[in-house]
Design goal:
With about 290 residues, the chain is of the alpha/beta class. It has helices spanning about 40-55, 75-90, 105-110, 130-135, 165-175, 200-210, 230-235, 240-255, 265-280; strands at about 5-10, 10-15, 20-25, 60, 95-100, 115-120, 140-145, 190, 220, 260-265. Strands 8-7-6-5-4-3-10-9 form an eight-stranded parallel beta sheet, with helices on one face. The protein has a two-stranded antiparallel sheet with strand order 1-2. The radius of gyration is 18 Å and the shape is globular.
């Protein structure tokens, strides 16, 4: 068995001995799955606390939808949505809190409020100040692959070189660039960006070959929860895609290809992780530690 991967988050070393469950807290009116349900700050905080009770290892708080076709949110509005929620969740929970943003000022203010991770769909390339914010805070950073922007990414995406080759070149380039920016590679997690500038065929190929990203020696964060590729395959609406989401989680656990599962349905995903780990380690007592 390979040694567990370690993720550095603001002076803390997070040793990943099993897949971690990252619970999604969307403080937005228009996210594809639960937009509007937690736009109220109190509702968002209570949702985050409930996800921790259900077993979330990390909370990911976002104030700007990145669904296909979505438009950017003004800086002040995004700050208003996320900073108070992050501040209270960081104060009331012991789990790391991530801010899902591509704006450096939102990341800076969120880190000051208690966040430890920046989850940036532009892989810290969209805002020139983002690398400095991550560096100065010693934050963990999730680098996601995406072509275009959320508003344009699904306009006939193509990868003449092959989608896995594109991912390989992209992550190699970003990891080589981090030290020059003053960010240790040990702070980075990779996200292949399922549904971000990719066709359904691209997404399924990435999932089938996700283990190829192990060569980078960094944890992989996988976000497929309730996504459109399941709707296209199964003809299921958003609220009937849990079984499909869990199937992918189990497949990636069998491959050992994803170390962080970013999901809406924390309790069910944590149950799947526990059962899978119990089968994989039949002599263990069945207890788990993050």
């Amino acid at each position: 068995m390979s040694a567990p991967l370690v993720w550095h988050i603001r002076g803390r070393e997070l040793t990943i001995t099993r897949p971690l469950v990252m619970g999604i807290v969307n403080v937005t009116p228009d996210s594809f799955s639960d937009g509007g349900r937690f736009l109220d700050h109190a509702a968002a905080v209570e949702h985050g606390l409930r996800l921790v009770d259900e077993g979330a290892d990390i909370l990911d708080v976002g104030g700007e939808s990145t669904r296909p076709g979505s438009q950017p949110v003004l800086l002040d509005e995004e700050l208003r949505r996320v900073v108070p929620v992050i501040e209270e969740l960081a104060r009331r929970t012991g789990v790391p809190v991530s801010v899902d943003t591509s704006k450096a000022e939102v990341a800076r203010r969120s880190l000051a409020a208690g966040a430890g991770i920046v989850n940036d769909v532009t892989a810290a390339t969209g805002d020139p100040e983002m690398p400095g914010v991550v560096r100065d805070a010693g934050a963990g950073v999730i680098l996601m692959h995406m072509r275009g922007t959320p508003a344009t990414m699904q306009q006939a995406p193509e990868y003449p070189e092959g989608v896995l080759t594109a991912l390989d070149h992209f992550f190699q380039s970003r990891l080589q660039e981090l030290p020059r920016l003053g960010i240790g590679p040990e702070c980075a997690v990779l996200d292949p960006g399922i549904g971000f500038g990719k066709t359904a065929a691209h997404n399924w190929e990435i999932l089938a070959r996700l283990g190829e990203l192990r060569r980078f020696g960094r944890p992989v964060c996988l976000g497929v929860s309730r996504k459109g590729l399941f709707g296209k395959l199964l003809d299921r609406p958003v609220d009937q895609r849990l079984a499909a989401s869990l199937a992918v989680a189990c497949a990636t656990m069998a491959q050992g290809s994803a170390q962080i599962l970013r999901v809406h349905d924390v309790a069910a995903t944590r149950d799947a992780v526990r059962v899978f780990e119990r089968i994989a380690r039949p002599t263990d007592s069945g207890t788990m530690t993050p």
